[in-house]
Design brief:
- The complex is a heterotrimer of chains A (319), B (359) and C (330).
- Chain A has 11 helices and 12 strands.
- With 319 residues, chain A is α/β, with parallel strands linked by helices.
- Chain B has 2 domains: 97 residues, no CATH class; 246 residues, MetI-like fold, CATH 1.10.3720.
- Chain B is 75% helix and 0% strand.
- Chain C has a domain of 186 residues: Rossmann fold.
- Chain C has 11 helices and 12 strands.
- In chain C, the strands form 2 sheets. Chain C has an 8-stranded mixed β-sheet, sandwiched between helices.
- The chains are: A alpha/beta (319), B mainly alpha (359), C alpha/beta (330).
Amino acid sequence: MSEPVVEIRHLNVDYPTRIGVVRAVDDVSLTIERGEVLGLVGESGCGKSTLGMALLRLLRPPGRIAGGQVFFNGRNLLELGEEEKRLLRGERISMVFQDPMTCLNPLQRVSDHLVETIRTHRPEVSKKEARAQAAELIDRLGIMTERLDDYPHQLSGGMRQRVMIGLALALNADLIIADEPTTSLDVIVEAQFLELLRELQQQFNLTILLITHNIGVVAELADRVAVMYAAKLVELGDVYPLFDAPLHPYTRGLLRSVPNIRLTDDDLEIMSGVPPDLYNPPPGCRFHPRCAQVMDRCRLEEPPFREVQPGRSVACWLY
Amino acid sequence: MTKYIIRRLISLLPTLLGVTLLVFMFIHLIPGDPAVVMLGEHASAENVKRIRQQLGLDKPLLLNFEAPAQALRGEIGIGEGVKGLFDSQYLGFLGRLLRGDLGRSVHEKTPIADLLKLKFPATIELSLLSMAFAIAVGIPAGIVSATRRNSIFDGLSMVGSLIGVSMPIFWLGLMLIYFFGVKLGWFPTYGRLPVDLSLERVTGLYTVDSILAGDVRALGLALKHLVMPSVALGTIPMAIIARMTRSAMLEVLQEDYIRTAYAKGLSERTVIIRHALKNAFLPVITIIGLQIGGLLAGAIMTETVFSWPGVGKWVYDAILARDYPVVQVAVLVITLLIALVNLLVDISYAFLNPKIRFE
Amino acid sequence: MSDNLVEVRGLKKWFPVQKGFIERLVTRERQFVHAVDGIDFQIRHGEVFGLAGESGSGKTTTGRLILRLVEPTEGSIVFDGVNLASLGDEEMRRLRQRMQVIFQDPFASLNPRMKIGDAIGHSLEIFKVATGEEKRQRVLDMMERVGLTPARFFYDKYPHQVSGGQRQRIVLARALMLHPDLVVADEPIAMADVSVRALLLDLMLQLKEEFNLTYLFITHDLATAKYICDRIAIMYLGLICEMGTLEQVYRHPQHPYTQALLAAVPVPDPHARRVKRLPKGEIPNPINPPPGCRFHPRCPHATAICSVEGPSLTEVEPGHLVACHTRFPA
C-alpha cells in the first residue's frame, strides 16, 4: 500500500475560553489513504469540523493545536512555517465549505475566483491561460462557460458549490476537505452534487475528507467512515461493515436514529440524553451516561481506541 | 449601469424641487414682514417698499389665481390669464434660479451669483482637503485597528477617535490656533493667503491656481493656510471613518469567503487588501457620503473660526446681518451639493457592488 | 361537524417585487413573486398533514397563510367551519389560541431575556387564562409532559442555558399551553442534532395523542416526513403537484417531480447506492414561473402539451391526487 496522504497522530485541539479550556479534538489518530473518500461523521460540536480546519491550519483564534502530529505526504504539518503552510493551502489541500452562499467573495466573478487560485500557486501561468483553464474547469463541472464572468449572486446554490469544487480541482489538490458540502442545498441539488462529486472522484482519483452530520451523504459517497463523539474518535471502519454491523453503541444508535426513506419499518430507535458538555466531560467513556450497555468499567476507565478487526477500530470496553 | 445612473438622476429632480420650495418658504416662516425683518424696525417705509418689490413680496405665493379669474371675467385675454396664473413669488423665484439669477445681496448690493463665484471655491478647497485628510488617516487607522485587534495601536486609535468625535469644532479650531498658530507660529491663523500676495484667479482653488501660475511659493503658502482649518474640519469625519472602517473590517474578516481566501493559499496581505478591504469599503463609502453633509455644516464653524472667506463664513455673516436672499442661496447651494455628493456615493456604491449593478 | 379542521380553497399569495418610487411611475408592469399560486387541500381532525417541497416551493408561505400571519391574495381558508377572512381582528385574536406555530429555529423564537417558565406561560397571561401561582402550576405540568424535567430546575433558567433539543421542547410546551387544535410545525426538527431528532418526532406524536392535536408538518426532508405524516402534499413552485396518503405518495408516486424528490433523498445505507436519474437544473425563479406545467423544463417525460397547459390536480385513486398530463407510475 502506498503512503497515506494524511496521517494524524494523537491530535489535540484546544479552545481556551473565559470559563475554561475546551478540548475540541481529543487524542485523535487517523489516516487518509490516497484516492479514498473518508467520511467523518458526528453531531454538531463533536469536533469534526475543527479537525478539518486543523488539517488546513486554519483554526479560528483562539483555537490552537495543543499536541500531536499531522503528516501530510510525509511532512509534519505542525512544523511548517507560515509561508510553507500558505503554499500548501489551495494547492495541495483544498477546502469546500458548507454554505456556498457566503463562501465566495461577492465582489469577485467566477473567473476571478478560479484565476486567483491558479495564479497564486502557478505565477508562471498567464492570465489568459488561467482564464482558459477556468473555462474548461467550469465546463467540466456542468456550468455553462458563458457564466464564467458571473458574480456569485447570479448563480444558484448548486452552481456556487460547483465553483467551490472547481477551486479544489484547479490545481489537482492531493486532499479535498469537504465540510458539510451539501447541507445547505436542496434535496435534488444535493443529489446532483453528490453524483458529480462521485464522478470526479473516480475520474481523478481524488482523496476526499467528507465531514458531515448527514449519515445518508456518508452512505452515498464514503469508502471508509470515522465516527466522532464528544471530541473523541469512537469508531473507524470500511463503510459496508460499519453500516452493516456497527460496533460502538453510539454508532449503532446514530445509524438507527436516522430516518430512512426506503425502510418499511416505521420505528426509529431513540437515543436518550444529549452529548456531554465539553467543559466538563464525564469520566471514563464519554458515551457511558447515554449507553444502554454500560458497565462499571465504562464509568471509570476511558476505553482505548484500538483495532479490533483488520481495518476496524473502536473505542469501547465491549470489544 | 447607465440606466441606473439615469434613474438616479431623475429621482434627484423631486428632491431639488422640494428643496427650492423649502428654501423659498423659509423666508415666509420668519414672523412678521420679511422686508421689515431684513431692514430692521426703524427702516423707512420707502425702503421697505423697495425691498418688497425687489423680493416680489407683493405677489401671491404659489400660484396667481387672480389672472385666470380676470380672464374668465373677460378683463384680460385667455392667453394672458393662463400666463398670469404662473406669475407668483415661488415660480418667479424658480424661474430666476433657472436663468442663473440668484438675486442681490441686500447688504453688499452685489449680485449674489458674483459673490458665490468668489466664496464657493474657498469652501470646496477646504472641504476637499479636510475629506482627504479624514480618509487618508481614518481608513488606514481603521484597517490597522481591525487587523491588530485589541493591540495597543487599536486601543490608542479608538480612544483617539472617540475624542475626535466628541470634540466641538470651534474648540479644536481655537486650540489649534493657540498652539500651532500663536505659540509655535507654525501655521497662519486666518485667511487663505497673505493679503499682500496676488494670484491670478482661474479656478478659485488657490492650490490649483498657484500650480497653474507655476508659483511654488504661493502653493506652499496656500497649503500652509489650509492645514489647520482642514484638520479642524476633518477631525470628526476622520474619527467616524476610522471607527466605521474598523467595524466593517472586523465584520468582513469573520465572513466565510475570507476563510475561503485563506484556504486558497493567499497571503494575509492579499486577503486583506483584495478580499476584505474591498468588501468593507461598501459601508465605509456610505458613511463618507454622509460625512460630507456634516462637513458642509461644520464648514460654517470652521470658516468662522479661521476667517476663511468661504460659503460658510458668508452664511454666518449673512445670518447676523439678516441678509436673507444670501442665506437662501447659500442653503440652496449647500443642499444641492449634498444631494450631488450622495448621488455620487450611490453611483460609486453601485459600481463597487455587482448586486446593484446588475439589477 | 365536518371531518376537516382546515379547508384551503384556491389559495394564492403573490408578493409584489419591491421597486423604487420612480420606477413604479415609469414602468406600469408590476412583478410578483408567485409564492403560492392557487392550491386546495384539507387537513382532517387529528391527522398529521405534511407539506413538503424544496426551498421556494411555497410551503412556508402556505403555513403562514393558514395562521393568517400573511393575508392571502386570493382564496379562502376555513378553520373548523369558520372562514378566516370573515373574522375581525378581535375574533381572529381569539381564534389564534386554537392554532399555534413552531418554527425551525427555537433559539430565534425565544426571547433571550425571558425565563423559560415565563416564556412558556406567557400566552396564559396574554389571553388572561391564568396568572400567578396557577400559571406557574400549569407551566410546571406542561414542562413535565414535554420532558423538561425536573421542571422546577428549568423554570428559572434562560434559553441560552439549555441545549438545542431542550429549547425545541420549550417551544413545544409554549405552543401547547392554550390547548390548541392545530399546530403548524415549520421544519421543527431541522436544527436539532441527529440523535435528538428521533426523540423530538416521537415526542410530537405522543403529545398529539395526549392533547388531541392536528399537525400541519412543513418540511423539506421527505425521510423525516415519512415517520410522522399521515397524508402529504408535495409542492413545487407554488403549486401542489401530488397529494395523498403517505403510502400512496411514497409507494406509488405518479408525478415525475415527486419521483425525483424521493429518489434524491440520501439513504443511510451504502448498499442502496446507485446512479440516480435526476432532473436537470434547479427550481426556477418564482417571479416568472414557466408556462404550462411548472416542472416541464426539468421533466424527463415532458410532452408538447406540458409546455402549454398547466395540468390540474386530479384524483387517480381515492384520496390520491396528481397534477400531471403524462403520469408515469413509478
